[in-house]
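ok so for the tutorial part 2 we go from a plain amino acid sequence to predicted structure tokens. step 1 is just haveing the sequence, like this:
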Amino acid sequence: MDTAVNHIESDTSMATAIWVSVIIPCYNHERFIQRTLDSIVADTYPHKEIIIVNDGSKDSSDERIQECIASYTPKETVTYISRANKGICATLNEMISLAKGKYILPLASDDCLYGNTIAKRVAILEERTDKSVLLNDAFVIDDTDIIIKQSSSTDYWKADKTKYLDDDDILKECIKGIKLGGPVLFYRKDIFIEIGAYPDNLPIEDWYFYQRAASLNRILFADFKVALYRVHDNNMSGVNTKHARKLASHILQVYRLNFNFYPGLKYKLLAIKGYLRIYAWYVKLFLKEK
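step 2 — the prediction. this is what the tokens look like for a chain of 290 residues:
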């Protein structure tokens, strides 16, 4: 498959402002990608770039993305790459390496930004220099853009937000299974100097990232909405996912990869407990399928 790279350059020098790189891995989301891109352009933060990788989509995502890019004004900086499928973690590593921003905002190609919050998120991490990762909350929407739940954390994932207020509790929740689903992540690019790149062959990225960042006490939670988290039949993760056994096997892989990263015996024991719980779930799903 040919690779296409399109750039719409900004007039503002990236060296004189705090830039944010919005990175979007796209796979078979022709129905939603325009809404996603429009939500980024609508945020008034002036120093942002958009990086999109079409990861081997089999639908018309490429055409839709090209149409969207053509409609944007020169004030937006867009890098677009269309190529064969490599998987989510390899795609994220590629986009992160291309990112020119101090901060990175990852956004799935079926989700949207909400509330004009990029500037607020930059300000929070600029003030809290001891933290590298900011987590927030999101509304939950269906495939027609209707809000169906007021909180992706408490209403959808049934999270207890009081457990995201200090470093110890955050790490425990990340090891047990973080319940802040959706496009609520915002981080300094240099976090990867500390935690390393994603393993290219890892099929899920969120648990891996959160566990490593939390192990270094780098995560901060601020309770306000920043996005619209879309729930539909093709979601690869979720509370009612049809991909449950595959998801369980991926989570087990994360525990194995991160085991030596957990700081101290009590967290390693918690991870072993989590591993056994997920393994029991995996076996139950396997037997049910048989």
